[in-house]
TrEMBL record:
SUPFAM superfamilies: Ras GEF (SSF48366), Ubiquitin-like (SSF54236). Coiled coil: none annotated. The keyword Membrane does not apply. GO terms for biological process: Ras protein signal transduction. GO terms for cellular component: plasma membrane. It comes from the Eukaryota. Signal peptide: none annotated. This is RPGFL factor. Pfam families: RasGEF (PF00617). Residues 180-359 form the Ras-GEF domain. GO terms for molecular function: guanyl-nucleotide exchange factor activity. PANTHER family: GUANINE NUCLEOTIDE EXCHANGE FACTOR, RAP GUANINE NUCLEOTIDE EXCHANGE FACTOR-LIKE 1.
Length: 359
């Protein structure tokens, strides 16, 4: 694992290492998941969701669409922060997940009958936790950015705490200071395109209608939405963990450059995520950092704020988007907002007849 992480840092300098990294990645994954006894047949591909493992791993995988029947590996943690790795369908219910965990732990029926039955809990790094109902499905796609699944009894629920590595504050990522803005922006666009092209149009409809029809196969769409939030948090985190005023101002300038290149690449998802991240209240309050920013970049950022301004139903953004020729990556949450207004503002049935215009 140490060798793998060190080589990952050198890929930007030595591109010929890429083939070796993929082989090493497979070795690390095999050891980490301990799947020697349960390796799937060669004709069936098991796709691990990237959020359940180090995000560094996910960048090596070409994105392919997820379906409810796909099998994935995921970790379910215990109150003492030990974990079991289970293999499960993407669409598995909470009940199915708990059954797999119970089997791995060799949890007896006698323990369940004594009132020690396991419950499944999602816990965020902030300590916020929620109990999942047994009938809920596709829970893997609804986890937050820093959320994990915990299995515990009702008695131990109150004692659950986040994983230690999520509580500790560590210095910012030094790699971002060495990377060129063009490289970062192009990698963002390439990765988001891989995610975006996996989404089927019906996922948008299912996502909006899921309150009535139950959760369907919206895994790819939810993955992209989570990624959008992740980029927003990444921008704020890197700036706030950056030590030294000069270094922080330089990073702020670089992030504005990255946003500009993403817009040029017609990756409006990355562009929006970076601008929203820079508009975060914690970042906006860095008065000395913003004052140190060159006037040219201050003006550029004001233009970006005007473009992302939600006034008049995002009129400025819609006008800019209308002039772009595909391929492009739109700001997906706005599409969902439009569909939600369309759905909730119009009845599906009128006088017992289907509202064809709405549908």
């Amino acid at each position: 694992q140490e060798l793998y992480l060190l080589i990952m840092k050198d890929t930007s300098l030595y591109h010929e290492l890429e083939d070796e990294i993929i082989k090493l990645h497979q070795l690390v994954e095999t050891v980490e998941l301990k799947v020697a006894d349960e390796t799937p047949p060669p004709n069936k591909q098991v796709k691990p969701l990237f959020r359940h493992f180090r995000r560094i791993d996910s960048c090596l995988q070409t994105r392919v669409a997820f379906r409810g029947s796909d099998e994935i590996f995921c970790r379910v943690y215990m109150p003492d922060h030990s974990y079991v790795t289970i293999r499960s369908r993407l669409s598995a219910s909470v009940q199915d997940i708990l059954a797999s965990v119970t089997e791995k732990l060799q949890y007896s029926e006698e323990q369940s009958s004594r009132g020690y039955a396991l419950i499944l809990v999602t816990m965020a790094s902030s300590g916020e936790k929620a109990v999942l109902q047994p009938s809920e499905e596709c829970v893997f796609t609804t986890l937050g950015i820093n959320s994990h699944l915990f299995a515990c009894t009702k008695d131990t629920f109150d004692s659950l705490v986040p994983l230690p590595e999520e509580i500790q504050v560590v210095p910012g990522d030094t790699e971002i200071h060495r990377a060129e803005p063009e490289d970062v922006a192009n990698h963002l666009t390439a990765f988001h395109w891989e995610l975006f092209r996996c989404i089927h149009e019906l996922e948008f409809v299912d996502y909006v209608f899921h309150g009535e029809r139950g959760r369907r196969e919206t895994a790819n769409l939810e993955l992209l939405l989570q990624r959008c939030s992740e980029v927003q948090h990444w921008v704020g985190t890197e700036l706030l963990l950056c030590e030294g005023l000069g270094k922080r101002a330089h990073l702020l300038k670089k992030l504005i450059k990255i946003a500009a290149i993403c817009k040029q690449n017609q990756d409006m998802l990355s562009f929006y995520a970076i601008v929203i991240g820079l508009n975060n209240a914690a970042v906006s309050r860095l008065r000395l950092t913003w004052e140190k920013l060159p006037g040219k970049f201050k003006n550029l950022f004001r233009k970006f704020e005007n473009l992302t301004d939600p006034c008049r139903n995002h009129k400025t953004y819609r006008e800019v988007l209308a002039k772009m020729k595909p391929p492009l990556i739109p700001f997906v949450p706005l599409i969902l907002k439009d569909l939600t207004f369309l759905h909730e503002g119009s009845k599906t049935l009128l006088d017992g007849l289907v509202n064809v215009e709405k549908l």
